[in-house]
Write a structure and sequence with these properties.
single chain; FAD/NAD(P)-binding domain; 8-stranded mixed β-sheet; 12 helices
Length: about 400
């Protein structure tokens, strides 16, 4: 097989990039190791920045999203039993959208198949060769080894995928931080108990009330990284959520219902520099991971491929300057987002040892944040997202 751009991974980054390239008349092949059913059912992020939605709208990928999304103009910080609203739109001039990542992937898969360009499921890439001048992706399809020769390879296959690991250790610098806590995430068949997201700081640990639809709630509890999910039967989950989300408001109650899914996810920050190696370009989780507290993972991946799509469009016309600048341009945004995600994580999660000094610092930060318009504006601007550049056609 032969193509201009070989894309490894059919998550949001790979599929958005494939569509942006299609609109520019650039040929691509997308390889995905999992089945279509698997990638369309993976429960992941649900918060879309204003710029991400604008990009999807501009390129014709937001039809169902705009009909079914939940638009939020603020978030709530809950501590000391009192909720404090941060009015995102009033402070930053932009809103956020709630729309499940698995629903977005369904839309992106349908759009890709509608173009007639190749999207191969159950076709795992096993090796990348010739990255300096003549890239080849070796993959398996129907049990047989195959090759995809291309001018450029884009790795959108996550931190443990073949793309990142194809780069020699001496050619990259990895920056990493492991956090001493994890999230127990549950998907519940219960109506949201709030119109907006609730970030709760509590003596027993962090909790987050989110949603995926008017009928489905997404909830999280801070737990130990080594805590097995089997230690958390449904009754214990609801009891703990009620404790951590409790407030001095007799009219408020947490709606509960059947838990449809539960899992424990560790928290870490990772950046791999540079994001370009010869003719291999890394995007999304293949290049960086952020803790989920700031709701940035999917949005950062889309920002990467928006920049890369513009650069590849110029490259197809004979201008390589955009590709040369790709890594530096993306990393500038990556580190801003890493800082915000680290700050949110550090402020809202209770130290495992219950350190009273850290506890007092966190409360001081939360009280300042909810009492200062300038501090709240900084949070709002970062939460709704930096302006998205690139990706328009």
């Amino acid at each position: 097989m032969r193509t201009q751009v070989g894309i490894v991974g059919a998550g949001p980054a790979g599929l958005v990039l494939a569509h942006l390239l299609h609109l520019r008349g650039i040929d691509s092949v997308v390889l995905e190791r999992q089945t279509r059913e698997h990638v369309e059912r993976r429960i992941r992020a649900g918060v879309l920045e204003h710029g991400t939605v604008d990009l999807l709208r501009d390129v014709g990928l937001a039809g169902r999203l705009l009909r079914e999304r939940m638009v939020h103009h603020g978030i709530e910080l809950l501590f000391d039993g009192t909720g404090h609203r941060i009015p995102l739109t009033d402070l930053a001039g932009r809103e956020i959208t709630i729309y499940g990542q698995h629903e977005l992937v369904k839309d992106l898969v349908a759009a890709r198949l509608g173009t007639g360009r190749p999207l191969l499921f159950q076709a795992p890439a096993v090796a990348l060769d010739g990255l300096d001048d003549a890239p080849t992706i070796r993959f398996v399809q129907d049990g047989r080894p195959r090759e995809l020769r291309c001018d450029v390879v884009v790795g959108c296959d996550g931190y443990h995928g073949v793309s990142r690991t194809a780069v020699a250790d001496h050619a990259v610098t990895r920056y990493q931080r492991e956090y001493p806590y994890a999230w127990l995430g549950v998907l519940a068949q219960a109506p949201p108990s709030s119109e907006e997201l609730i970030y709760a700081y509590h003596d027993r640990g962090f909790a987050l009330h989110s949603m995926r639809s008017p009928q489905i709630t997404r909830l999280y509890l801070q737990v130990r990284p080594d805590e097995p999910v089997t230690d958390w039967p449904d009754e214990r989950i609801w009891a703990e959520l009620r404790r951590r989300l409790a407030r001095d408001d007799p009219g408020w109650r947490l709606a509960d219902g059947p838990i449809l899914e539960k899992s424990v996810t560790t928290m870490r920050s990772v950046v791999v520099e540079p994001m370009r190696h010869g003719r291999l370009f890394l995007a999304g989780d293949a290049a960086h991971i952020v803790p989920a507290t700031g709701a940035k993972g999917l949005n950062l991946a889309v920002a990467d491929v928006a920049v890369l799509a513009d650069a590849l469009g110029a490259w197809a016309a004979g201008d390589t300057s955009g590709l040369d600048a790709y890594s530096a341009r993306c990393l500038s945004r990556v580190w801003r987002v890493q800082h915000f995600s680290w700050w949110m994580t550090s402020m809202l999660h209770r130290a495992q040892d219950g350190d009273p000094f850290t506890h007092r610092l966190q409360l001081a930060q939360l009280r300042y944040l909810t009492g200062s318009r300038a501090a709240a504006t900084s949070l709002a601007e970062n939460y709704v997202g930096l302006p998205l550049t690139g990706g328009r056609t």
